[in-house]
Amino acid sequence: MTSPRTLLKAWNLLARKELGQNFLTEPTLAAQIVDLAGIGPDEAVLEIGAGLGALTIAAARRAGRIIAVEKDTQLAPLLRAELLANGLEQVTVLEQNIFTLDLPRLADEMGQPLTVMGNLPYNISSQVLVKLIHERRAVRRAILMFQKELGDRLCAPPGSKTYGRLSVMLQYCADITVLRTVRPELFFPKPKVDSVVLAIDFKTAIHPPVGDEALLEQVVQAAFGQRRKTLRNALAGGLLPLDNAAALQVLQTARIDPRRRAETLTVAEFVALTDVLEGHLAT
After folding, report:
1. Which residues are recorded as binding S-adenosyl-L-methionine (predicted)?
2. Residues 6+ apart with CB under 8 A from 59
3. Measured between alpha carbons, how far is 245 from 236 in angstroms, rounded to an integer?
4. N or C: which end of the chain has fewer CB within 10 A?
């Protein structure tokens, strides 16, 4: 693997800060991530933001099929050249925005659920996770690199200051494992913070399942949107069709103290609260 600095200079390109581009500089690290992820020859891999191909090359040596998505049309020809130089002609490069990609359709075309990989720019990490949660029936698992601050939030337990909306929604539908941390000096350009690689395994069965997942999202958003307030006041804050009295009734029926705050609720308690609210709205 040619160094990112050398590659970009040879192609007269610069890393684009507005796209959050920080490229892995160490091929052994990319190979280690693929090893830790347990990528195998029977898997169909979708890589988000393939960049200069560090993860792409490592994964392509192990996986059966790879779709590499790269939004930056200036980088895509360079990526294709690097893949060709490494004899990896089986990789398909899509010059596309990940948010316009239909994952269920792609999984149908591949004949199996996808394994998603990527070194995610911080400015789109949350949106990518939301997309994967919504389209998870097309995704078996994801191995993603985040800024450590966001990774810590995703893994945070109830009661912690970093536990929030994404923590609840991801933990509801997936098991999360920390694979390793990555120091800033292993990227070019060098970011200011550590990164972390997470394995996200989407559950085939959720216990307990919520009746209305879209409503669960609304409840979680309302609760954490005003996280300094008590749950009673947060739920009656305008995002949900509840006044103060109705919010109190729903919380009491769900056996949740209305004086508690959002960060103290477990995922199961959010599910119970949502199911009670669904019944209340139906009457």
Report:
1. 22, 24, 49, 70, 119
2. 34, 39, 45, 47, 66, 117
3. 8
4. C
Model pLDDT, residue 179: 97
User: Which domain, by its residues, includes 278?
Assistant: 213-282
Domain-embedded: residue 245: yes
The reply, when asked if residue 244 is annotated as ligand binding, is no
One domain for residues 171 and 225: no
| Per-residue pLDDT tens digits for 46-55 | 999 999 999 9
Is 112 a member of any domain? yes
Question: Does 12 show up as a binding residue in the annotation?
Answer: no
Amino acid identity at 276: V
217-235 pLDDT, tens digit each: 999 999 999 889 999 999 9
Q: Which amino acid is present at 144?
A: L
Asked if 164 and 255 sit in the same domain, the reply is: no
Q: Is 151 known to sit in a ligand binding site?
A: no
Q: Is the pLDDT of residue 1 over 70?
A: no
pTM assigned to the model:
0.94
Tell me the DSSP string of 217-282: HHHHHHHHHTTTS-HHHHHTSSSSS--HHHHHHHHHHTT--TTS-GGG--HHHHHHHHHHHHHHHH
Q: Is 79 assigned a ligand-binding role in the annotation?
A: no
Round to whole Å and give the CA distance between 125 and 149.
Answer: 12
